[in-house]
């Protein structure tokens, strides 16, 4: 096949891959399924798609259309040629503000479309929980809905036209047709004509009409997506004379790429909702209350009603990012009902909320009803949207699995239906997770199963079939918005009857006589418990690790926490840190998901004694910047930084440590030696000719300037001068951790930190200690980092308390105490390390805490006016928060501070210095940070806590950024009395 793919590669403008690694990365989506594709193509235009389809016809190879790969039912998993539209087909083609429609290419992200539309007062209504990274072709393929479907319906409701390429290569636009136009289409002697003729033949048959109306889901259920939407096509003018145009675009919605390949979509747009949003968070004692309380909520005309059960709420406690979004929760609710209202004024919402609470309390539902507005609403919706991802945080091999998570019934049937679901689960002694779109009669129900257990794999199938029968009892829809795929396709005959299913197959064969368009989805689907990610016959590999991975059940399970939801595919327009290399390239292999997928694949299949000794892993993990963004922003808390560091140590154990890696890791020692002759050291580093030789020798980018040494170390200054600045009467005592970067390079920042603290009234101690170990951790030399961590924990464990905290200046160094040390030092010191972690603070965290307690006064600072723009450090964003920095920068009465909405700066320690990473490093900086700094007036101060961030800002913009402590020290005009 290699020669065939090479020939095909020369025919398309886009990319074609058929290597094993790429196939592994595309073997899964966000579902429980896995199957290696034959190849992966990334077309650049419709002509590429035509050539790819021609190749597939000639070689009888299936084509699997794929967008962001966030499908939950295995829609884009299969043995064929994956057609990935996410890389290049991402343009907004045309906007008509007068007629309220937009034409887009298939790879446009809905949130980014809505950002584009906002100035025009318009938006695309359906809003999925994946709206910051899923794509509109995927939403069309699955007929996605989202939280506000009560108001805005499904993707199908807003689809006006679809530009397609049919299986025979013909280009066809499917759009609205009146009766005469429809009949004219049936007379065409091409594939398009055959399609219309077939549908005319089927839908004109009175017996079939009767059967469709009897067997399809109840018309009151709007979330309905089983099979092909013949019921909707039937209720159009050619068959009922009702004046509703016939539109095959409605059939393509929900067809999962089995009928045609989409090249463009024309969508209807709606006006922006009223400006004021309010969210009533109904706290319920137990889950059954939610099903009846929902009916009360719906009487008040909300825009959305969503459910979160106790299990999901508990799991959000284990995620750094989502823990912050739990601020509104009172007590220990068994469930939350989130009821959103959009109105013109806050007063209107307050009145509705008051009436809603009255009705709820009168009926005996709910014990707390906080009402949230503004940014707090977004925080709660982020908590709710994280529901899918946080489920992977459940301990052990038994996890909540996608099975009956997409069923929809009429809301009035929900209490009885859920009672039946409960009885079904009790029959098999299983529990379930409940969350999502209760207001529209659809709940995401995930039974807890261990798909490594052959018994549970069989039960997976049994429950699937019994749920289908239960949904049929209520005339519901087995698929409400996530599609059929491999998960539910097997049960479509049960849902619509064998005759209708036969018609589905005829329609599929008419559209696709070659059988190449995403086969095995909707029709002729294999048994739903085959091709699963987890193979019960392959045991978990127990890998001896240097980090403690016991909290996840070992290294392999830590990687397997990734469920493929694709949160790491959000772009820079969505904000956040994760994942900088993906944001800069939009390549799947740069995502957190790809790295976790490859780890799982390699570990599972490896025959080596140490499965981490694999160069394929080295290549894919190489462009991970170790920014830690995934630890907090991935709802499953997949920490690729730690997984990468562990891998590197194993890899070096087998292959040796490269020279550059050694030099970077032992950077502190090099600086220490350099401090013997700092002038000479700086001369070599600054001299263009000499520094170029040094950089080329060690593999650094010659474009980079090298960090220079101060004239003396901070330790030297402390020995000579600190005692004379200690306060006579102190507010308290703190210990300053003098990290390896501050000690030799950023000495001025270190001095100002000490002077600021002492002038504010704190006694500062600087005991002898080891370096932080950050350089060793970043380069994967964990054995050395462990020795450093043990030494530091032993030094500080008996002197650091809540009253006498450990404070640090450089985020990556001081936050090592919080993040890596407790899982690095071993069982004998683990409790000491955890206690130390709780009492280790960044300088801004400490200062913000002291200010909030009233110990630091605003009047001690200048009255001058200054505005500051802050770029937060990645570790700070992931493991702490930038809000403390913003708070301390506002200590002076007339200082204002705002955060640049940047992710990673791109430097990431040594990453941006390395010659092969330099261009990517600068590209990451150019996403948001560099333009924001360049656009900032000269009198505005730029703040950045990270030493590498300040270096990157200087290199990319020629602006000097200051550590926030420097800014605060310069603003201090009065010492504490």
Topology:
Blueprint: H1 2-9, E1 15-17, H2 20-25, E2 39-42, H3 46-59, E3 63-66, E4 81-84, E5 92-96, E6 101-104, H4 110-117, E7 122-123, H5 136-142, H6 149-152, H7 155-158, E8 159-165, E9 171-174, E10 176-177, H8 179-186, H9 191-203, H10 206-215, H11 230-234, H12 237-240, E11 246-247, H13 249-252, E12 261-268, E13 270-271, E14 276-284, H14 287-298, E15 304-309, H15 310-315, H16 320-323, E16 335-343, H17 346-363, E17 371-373, H18 375-385, H19 387-390, E18 399-400, E19 404-408, H20 414-427, E20 432-436, E21 442-449, H21 454-473, H22 485-488, H23 492-496, H24 498-511, H25 555-560, H26 580-585, H27 592-605, H28 615-621, H29 629-633, H30 640-655, H31 659-665, H32 667-674, H33 678-686, H34 688-698, H35 714-725, E22 732-737, H36 740-744, H37 747-759, E23 762-765, H38 774-778, H39 782-796, E24 806-808, H40 811-814, H41 816-819, H42 827-838, E25 840-842, H43 843-852, E26 866-870, H44 874-879, H45 883-888, E27 895-899, H46 918-927, H47 929-934, E28 941-943, H48 947-957, H49 964-971
Helix pairs in contact: 8-9, 9-24, 20-21, 27-28, 28-30, 35-37, 37-49, 39-42
Quick gist of this model?
By secondary structure, the protein is α/β, with parallel strands linked by helices.
The separation of the N and C termini measures 81 Å
- What summary fits the major beta sheet? 8 strands, antiparallel
- What structural class is derived from the secondary structure elements? alpha/beta
Mean pLDDT: 95
Q: What is the strand tally?
A: 28
Strand content: 5-15%
Specify the number of helices: 49
Contiguous uncertain segments of 5+ residues: none
Radius of gyration: 30 Å
Query: What is the 3D form?
Result: globular
Tell me roughly what share of residues is in helical segments.
40-55%
């Amino acid at each position: 096949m290699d020669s065939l793919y090479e020939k095909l590669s020369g025919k398309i403008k886009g990319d074609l891959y058929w290597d094993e690694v790429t196939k592994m990365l595309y073997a899964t989506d966000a579902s429980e399924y896995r199957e290696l594709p034959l190849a992966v193509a990334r077309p650049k235009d419709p002509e590429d798609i035509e050539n790819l389809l021609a190749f597939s016809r000639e070689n009888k190879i299936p084509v699997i259309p794929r967008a962001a790969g966030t499908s939950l039912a295995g829609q884009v998993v299969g043995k064929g040629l994956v057609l990935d539209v996410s890389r290049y087909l991402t343009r907004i083609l045309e906007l008509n503000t007068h007629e309220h429609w937009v034409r887009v290419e298939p790879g446009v992200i809905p949130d980014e479309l809505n950002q584009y539309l906002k100035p025009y007062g318009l938006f695309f209504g359906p809003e999925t929980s994946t709206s910051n990274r899923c794509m509109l072709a995927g939403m069309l393929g699955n007929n996605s809905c989202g939280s506000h479907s009560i108001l805005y319906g499904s993707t199908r409701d807003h689809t006006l036209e679809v530009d397609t390429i049919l299986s025979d290569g013909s280009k066809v636009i499917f759009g609205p047709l009146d009766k005469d136009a429809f009949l004219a289409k049936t007379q065409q002697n091409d594939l398009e004509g055959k399609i219309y003729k077939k549908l005319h033949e089927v839908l004109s048959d009175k017996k079939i009409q009767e059967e469709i109306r009897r067997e399809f889901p109840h018309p009151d259920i709007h979330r309905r997506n089983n099979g092909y939407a013949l019921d909707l096509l039937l209720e159009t003018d050619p068959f009922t004379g009702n004046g509703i145009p016939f539109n095959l675009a409605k059939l393509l919605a929900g067809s999962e790429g089995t009928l045609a390949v989409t090249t463009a979509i024309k969508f209807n747009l709606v006006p922006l909702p009223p400006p004021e949003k309010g969210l009533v968070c109904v706290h319920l004692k137990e889950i059954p209350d939610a099903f009846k309380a929902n009916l009360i909520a719906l009487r008040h005309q909300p825009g959305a009603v969503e459910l979160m059960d106790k299990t999901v709420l508990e799991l959000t406690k284990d995620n750094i990012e989502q823990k912050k979004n739990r601020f509104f929760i009172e007590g220990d609710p068994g469930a939350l009902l989130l009821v959103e209202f959009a109105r013109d004024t806050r007063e209107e919402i307050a009145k509705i909320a008051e009436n809603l609470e009255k009705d709820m309390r009168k009926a005996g539902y709910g014990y707390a009803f906080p009402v949230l507005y503004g940014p707090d609403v977004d925080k709660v919706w982020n908590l709710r949207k994280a529901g899918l991802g946080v489920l992977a945080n459940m301990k052990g091999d038994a996890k909540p699995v996608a099975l009956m998570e997409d069923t929809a019934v009429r809301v009035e049937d929900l209490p009885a239906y859920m009672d039946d679901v409960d009885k079904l689960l009790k029959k098999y002694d299983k529990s379930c997770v409940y969350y999502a779109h209760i207001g529209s009669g659809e709940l995401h129900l995930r039974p807890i199963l261990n798909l490594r257990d052959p018994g549970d794999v069989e039960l997976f199938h049994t429950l699937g079939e019994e749920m289908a029968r239960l949904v049929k009892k209520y005339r519901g829809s087995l698929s409400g918005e996530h599609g059929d795929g491999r998960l539910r396709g097997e049960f479509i005959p049960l849902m619509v009857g064998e005759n209708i299913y036969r018609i589905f197959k005829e329609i599929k064969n008419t559209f696709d006589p070659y059988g190449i368009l995403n086969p095995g989805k909707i029709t002729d689907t294999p048994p739903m418990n085959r091709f699963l990610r987890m193979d019960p016959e392959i045991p978990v590999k127990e890998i001896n690790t240097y980090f403690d991975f016991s909290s996840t059940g070992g290294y392999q399970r830590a990687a397997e926490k990734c469920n493929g939801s694709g949160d790491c595919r959000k772009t820079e327009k969505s904000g956040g840190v994760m994942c900088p290399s993906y944001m800069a390239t939009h390549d799947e292999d740069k995502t957190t998901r790809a790295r976790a997928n490859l780890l799982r694949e390699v570990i599972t299949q490896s025959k080596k004694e140490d499965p981490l000794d694999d160069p394929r892993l080295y290549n894919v993990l190489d462009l991970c910047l170790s920014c830690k963004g995934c630890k907090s922003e991935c709802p499953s808390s997949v920490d690729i930084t730690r997984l990468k560091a562990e891998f590197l140590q194993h890899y070096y154990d087998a292959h040796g440590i490269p020279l550059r890696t050694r030099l970077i890791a032992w950077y502190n020692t090099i600086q220490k030696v350099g401090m013997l002759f700092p002038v000479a050291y700086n001369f070599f580093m600054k001299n263009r000719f000499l520094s170029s030789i040094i950089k080329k020798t060690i593999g650094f980018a010659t474009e980079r300037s090298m960090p220079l040494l101060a004239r003396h170390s901070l330790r030297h200054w402390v020995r000579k001068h600190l005692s004379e600045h200690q306060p006579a009467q102190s507010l308290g005592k703190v210990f300053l951790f003098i990290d390896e970067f501050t000690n030799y390079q950023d000495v001025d920042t270190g001095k100002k930190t000490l002077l600021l603290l002492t002038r504010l009234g704190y006694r500062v101690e600087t005991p002898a200690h080891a370096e932080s170990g950050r350089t060793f951790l970043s380069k994967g030399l964990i054995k050395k980092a462990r020795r450093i961590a043990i030494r530091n924990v032993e030094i500080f464990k008996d002197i650091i308390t809540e009253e006498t905290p450990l404070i640090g200046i450089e985020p990556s160094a001081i936050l090592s105490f919080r993040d890596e040390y407790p899982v690095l030092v071993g069982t004998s010191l683990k409790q000491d390390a955890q206690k130390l972690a709780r009492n280790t603070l960044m300088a801004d965290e400490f200062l913000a805490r002291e200010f909030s307690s009233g110990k630091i006064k605003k009047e001690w600072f200048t009255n001058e006016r200054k505005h500051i723009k802050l770029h937060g450090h990645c570790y700070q964003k992931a493991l702490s928060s930038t809000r403390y920095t913003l708070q301390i920068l506002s200590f002076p009465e007339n200082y204002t501070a705002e955060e640049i909405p940047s992710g990673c700066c791109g430097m990431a320690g040594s990453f941006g210095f390395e010659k092969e990473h330099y261009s990517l490093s600068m590209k990451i900086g150019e996403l948001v940070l560099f333009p924001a700094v360049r656009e900032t007036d000269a009198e505005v101060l730029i703040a950045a806590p990270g030493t590498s961030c300040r270096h990157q800002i200087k290199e990319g913009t020629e602006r000097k950024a200051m550590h926030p402590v420097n800014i605060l020290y310069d603003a201090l005009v009065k010492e504490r009395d």
